[in-house]
Amino acid sequence: MLLITGASGGLGSLIARRAADHPGHPDGIRFGTRAPDGPGQVRVDFDDPDSLDFTGVDTLLLISAGYGEDDRVIARHGAAVSAAERDGVRHVVYTSLTGAGDHLPYALPHRWTERRLRGSALAWTVLRNGLYAELLGALAAPGPDGVITAPLGAGRLAAVAREDLAEVALGVALAPDAHAGQVYELVGDRPLGGAELAAAVGARYAPGSLAEARTALSGPDAAPFQPPMLVTTYSAIAAGFLDTPDTGTLRRLLGRSPRPALEVYAKTAAASGV
Ligand SMILES: NC(=O)c1ccc[n+]([C@@H]2O[C@H](COP(=O)([O-])OP(=O)(O)OC[C@H]3O[C@@H](n4cnc5c(N)ncnc54)[C@H](OP(=O)(O)O)[C@@H]3O)[C@@H](O)[C@H]2O)c1
């Protein structure tokens, strides 16, 4: 059986939708989520390690549970891997972060999890996902005045459509043996910068400073870890650390060209309602 965790999240729900339609595996896939309420769904909450039960699971598609301080995220992923070892899971497919993101503080729990898997007796595959085009749509949408002030400077991001990452993740998880021991860098094929984003949505690009962004992000509803997470994302893009395009891995695993990230950006930015 294949168990997909995080099935209600943005990435997990795309994978689950594809998996539900997949011919030949109608009963062989379960969808793990903290609050199950649909067919094939089972409760999986890494914050409740004693409740984890992966009995009968052959392949675990472990969607990272990345929101929180490092110790919390590491504890979650550690609990998942330990339960996989205990319950006889054969192969873990883990959604990580692109190596180009090593300057981002939230890379640390991803690298910890990769190291934990490498040191285990489990078979594993690491999907090093690039930053989503959808994330860019949220972080660099124009304001009501039609101006994009996201502090991207002259930097560009090799953003990738989340749907492409879902497609690759499911494909790998359904045939894991062919991908054992592989670390795949999954980034977009065309880096996008502020001016290009603005042109795509009929906006003007006038990047602000990181300090202004930090102030804007530090509202009363923000968890303490959130502003640094987002500000360092802007900073890494602006400094040019995230602009290396796909060298063919994503295209090869998809078996076609990646979805155009600029279109995904424009659609997400429009849906953000500003
Ligand atoms: N590459 C990028 O641009 C990017 C952007 C944002 C996040 N990420 C990372 O990639 C992951 C998936 O992205 P996403 O877009 O699907 O994020 P999302 O929509 O915010 O979903 C968060 C995910 O974390 C899971 N989760 C949270 N707490 C959990 C827990 N205690 N136990 C088990 N699962 C837990 C959720 O599962 P349920 O709700 O189903 O329980 C859900 O799948 C994120 O969690 C984060 O680590 C990557």
- Percentage beta strand: 15-25%
Order of helices and strands: EHEEEHEHEHEEHEEHEHHHH
So, the CATH homologous superfamily? NAD(P)-binding Rossmann-like Domain
Q: Measure the end-to-end span.
A: 43 Å
Tell me the number of structural domains. 1
Question: What radius of gyration results from the CA coordinates?
Answer: 19 Å
Number of strands: 11
| Helix/strand/pairing category | alpha/beta
- Unreliable segments (pLDDT under 50, ≥5 consecutive)? none
Pfam family, one: NAD_binding_10
Domain NAD(P)-binding: 6-173
Protein name: NAD(P)-dependent oxidoreductase
Give structural notes.
This protein has 274 residues and is of the alpha/beta class. The chain has one domain (2-271): Rossmann fold, CATH 3.40.50. The protein has 10 helices and 11 strands. The chain has helices at residues 10-20, 70-86, 107-118, 133-139, 162-174, 194-201, 210-217, 226-238, 249-254, 261-271; strands spanning 2-4, 29-33, 41-43, 59-63, 91-97, 123-129, 147-148, 156-157, 183-186, 192-193, 204-205. The protein has a 7-stranded parallel beta sheet, with helices on both faces. It has a two-stranded parallel ribbon with strand order 7-11. Helix 1 links the parallel strand 1 (2-4) and strand 2 (29-33). The chain is globular and about 55 Å long. The model has no long low-confidence stretch (mean pLDDT 95). NADP nicotinamide-adenine-dinucleotide phosphate (NAP) binds next to helix 1.
